[in-house]
Amino acid sequence: MCFSGSSTRRGLLAGAAVVLAGCAAGGRTSGGTDNGGGDSGRGAEPSAGTPPTATAGVVPPSAGAAAAASSTPSTGGGPATELVRASSGRPEVALTFHTNGDIALVDGLLAAVAQAQVPITCMFVCNWLERYPDYARRVRDAGHEIGNHTYTHLADLDRQSAAVVRSEVERSQEIMERVTGGPGDYFRPSAMHHATPTVLAEAGRAGYAHCLSYDVDPLDYTDPGADAVVTRTLAAVQPGSVVSLHFGHAGTIPALPRIITGLQQKGLRPVTVHDLFA
Length: 278
Description:
9 helices, about 280 residues
């Protein structure tokens, strides 16, 4: 769900803060530790092929990536456009979350978001969402933005055939539509910074105008600790940045309030991806 007015979004976030915090305290779904990619929150992003921590933060550009793109959907059914960083110059950033993981950790992060009253964009791993559909409704009803982050979160999606990529896009799209009433605003491929031509083609074929990338990656899925997540994020972020973060990792929970404080000190305001590229 996208909202056109920042004041409307702030009102929804304020009203939802108590609801989400209450859900985090006592409304957990059974099922505990599964995160759709590994145990105890690990595996939401594979470590194989990940740049070393010395390069954490700024994501290298891709020759095929659009640093800024219109949020107007394409009408010809052609390949999706990749969104990496907005070029409006406004002092805004988007905090995006790969959304799956241990339920207790998901609840903890939702409580931190509710307390901060900032909008986020949640990209759901849909085999996880299939088991815990109430979380998409909670996120949407709190005024946040939702998107599709594949069905099984394959670690080698960039090396898969078009048929496999199509299955990942369409199967997760069907779940998003069934659970939330829509396909989600963006498609984010798994385990890659930038979408391949095959991913862009299959996302566009399914009706997604945009694949969502990012330009800031603190590698929180490697569990480096809250201090590292905060330092890496704030060192790399700039106006228009899209930050990649994760549910399901304990260090991200205490890092989030400090990241938001640091953004405020830099004069930067968190917004949804929709508002960032508007």
